[in-house]
Amino acid sequence: MTTTQLQPMPSDWRRALAVVAHPDDLEYGCSAAIAAWTDEGREVAYVLATRGEAGIDTLAPEECGPLREREQRASAAVVGVSEVEFLDHRDGVVEYGTALRRDIAAAIRRHRPELVITLNHRDTWGGVAWNTPDHVAVGRATLDAAGDAGNRWIFRELVEQGLEPWDGVRWVAVAGSSTPTHAVDATAGMERAVRSLLEHRTYIEVLTDEDPETYVRGFLTQHAENTGKRFGGRPAVAFELFGR
Ligand SMILES: [Zn+2]
């Protein structure tokens, strides 16, 4: 177990784009950082590969997709994010490949971020806690698409659609990594992070018998306090930062 201190995240950027597989992927741990960034006047937009339509056993995907989309938009609004896009890949069977890389590269060109955020792309969350195939596919494709977005010749159809290359991504920050390098102070954003995750109410009510607010607050504060042990004792959100 390493006790190396986490470094503060870079702050010389204006726009971030978060790309994840499912509704709630950002709210499970990341949104206190997003709230801190939007407080500072930075622009953050969300892109979700799916609508999370296969996430609730008792709800058919046709009903579940629109519901989770609404919950995700409400959840983003709580932390100051008004742009939420869905790429319409199928929940549970997202395939890593050129179609996914192209869709994410197109989103990066539309939003022109300096910082891209994604969720753990590795096989496990650390140890033997197996990750899900959608997270692995979307995380890897996002790391790759940060480069693809800057290359005119990889997806030529994007230029034909008017999406000029954007080579301005300077970092990809991976949330939920078991080998984080950087962190953001979660103190100011924590209350909104709790309310943001609570917006996924239908999902959470199925997930736990606990009172939703007790569950959400317990999960997020515990997580931030653990990370804080490596960030000067301040509750924090950790990222593994890949420079470009
Ligand atoms: Zn997920």
UniProtKB/TrEMBL annotation:
Coiled coil: none annotated. Signal peptide: none annotated. Keywords: Zinc. One of its GO terms (biological process) is glycoside metabolic process. GO terms for molecular function: hydrolase activity, acting on carbon-nitrogen (but not peptide) bonds, in linear amides. InterPro entries: GlcNAc_PI_deacetylase-related, LmbE-like_dom_sf. Pfam families: PIG-L (PF02585). This is LmbE family protein. It comes from Streptomyces viridochromogenes (strain DSM 40736 / JCM 4977 / BCRC 1201 / Tue 494).
